[in-house]
Amino acid sequence: MKDFTPASMDRVLARFFQCGTWAACVLTGAGLVIGTKALAAGVALFILLPVLRVVVMLAVFARQRNYVYVTIAATVLAVIAAGCAIGLRLGPLGG
After folding, report:
1. In terms of pTM, does the model score above 0.70?
2. What would the pLDDT profile of 39-91 be if each residue is shown by its tens digit?
3. Contacts with 21 (C-beta within 8 Å, 6 or more apart), sequence order
4. Would you state the pLDDT for residue 72?
5. Distance between CA 45 and CA 24 in Å, rounded?
6. Residue-range domain boundaries for the chain
7. Rounded to an integer, what distance in angstroms lies between the CA atom of residue 47 and that of residue 63?
């Protein structure tokens, strides 16, 4: 795998988000026509795209051995995970 420069990494991530956003839009639109499962999948994809960006950035920073940014990205993921856990525990699904 080639090393990413910041400019090429930006292009790859932009393309990834463009495709992901289109997929989420299609799922959401289909959900309006065929039912709530596709709608929920589209909304879930909209929510997951930024999380996936942090995961990809963590991997890229780790490959570049940029440990300051690895720590930052890992901290962001930990905060997201903690927020999800707290939301599941205290939210309407948590009982």
Report:
1. yes
2. 999 999 999 998 998 998 899 889 889 999 999 999 999 999 999 888 888 87
3. 46, 49
4. 96
5. 6
6. 6-90
7. 26
End-to-end CA distance of the chain: give it in Å, rounded.
46
Cα–Cα separations (whole angstroms), residue 25 to 37, 54, 66: 14, 21, 34
SS3 95: coil
CB 49 within 8 A of CB 21: yes
Q: Is pLDDT of 95 > 80? A: no
CB neighbours of residue 60 within 10 Å: 19
The C-alpha torsion from 82 through 84 and 55 to 40, rounded to 10°, is 180
Q: Which amino acid is at 25?
A: C
